[in-house]
């Protein structure tokens, strides 16, 4: 996934990948299942923190990830989809590469 082109574009809000999770009942009685992206703490923060410029700090993004309830799903998604940019599941691209190379 490339760095968002606008501050309003948050790749973690995309709805293409769904996991079972909490749901919300709408006023009409319809039940809407929330995806892990919609439950992620990063969906409520500035996406720029998760896509720092080269040499930029990843500390704030990783701090958010460490307290996020969907961190494992996020990391699983990043590994399965070979995400090459940004902080996903609390890990940088380099850290995810190392994790993938480790023997199972």
What does this structure look like?
The chain has one domain (17-101). 30% of the residues lie in helices and 6% in strands. It contains four helices and two strands; from the N terminus they run ββαααα. Strands 1-2 form a two-stranded antiparallel ribbon. It is globular, with a radius of gyration of 15 Å. One of its GO terms (molecular function) is metal ion binding. InterPro entries: 4FE4S_WBL (IPR034768), Whib (IPR003482). Residues 41-98 form the 4Fe-4S Wbl-type domain.
Overall geometry: globular
How many helix segments?
4
Strand content: 5-15%
Described by strand count, sense and barrel closure, the largest sheet is:
2 strands, antiparallel
Main β-sheet, spatial strand arrangement = 1-2
Distance N to C terminus? 26 Å
State the secondary-structure class.
mainly alpha
The percent of residues in helical segments reads 25-40%
Write down how many β-strands occur, each being a DSSP E stretch of 2 or more residues: 2
Q: Order of helices and strands, N to C?
A: EEHHHH
- Rg for CA atoms: 15 Å
Question: Residue ranges: pLDDT <50 for 5 or more in a row?
Answer: 1-11, 13-21
Mean pLDDT rating? 78
Count of distinct structural domains? 1
Family: Belongs to the WhiB family.
Keywords: 4Fe-4S, Disulfide bond, DNA-binding, Iron, Iron-sulfur, Metal-binding, Transcription, Transcription regulation
Region (Disordered): 1-25
Domain 4Fe-4S Wbl-type: 41-98
């Amino acid at each position: 996934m490339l760095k968002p082109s606008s501050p309003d574009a948050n790749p973690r809000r995309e709805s293409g990948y769904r996991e079972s999770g909490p749901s919300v009942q709408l006023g009409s009685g319809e039940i809407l299942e929330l995806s892990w992206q919609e439950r992620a703490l990063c969906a409520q923060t500035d996406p720029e923190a998760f896509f720092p410029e080269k040499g930029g700090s990843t500390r704030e993004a990783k701090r958010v990830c460490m307290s996020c309830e969907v961190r494992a799903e996020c990391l699983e998604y990043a590994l399965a989809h070979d995400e090459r940019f940004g902080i996903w599941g609390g890990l940088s691209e380099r850290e995810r590469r190392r994790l993938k190379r480790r023997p199972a």
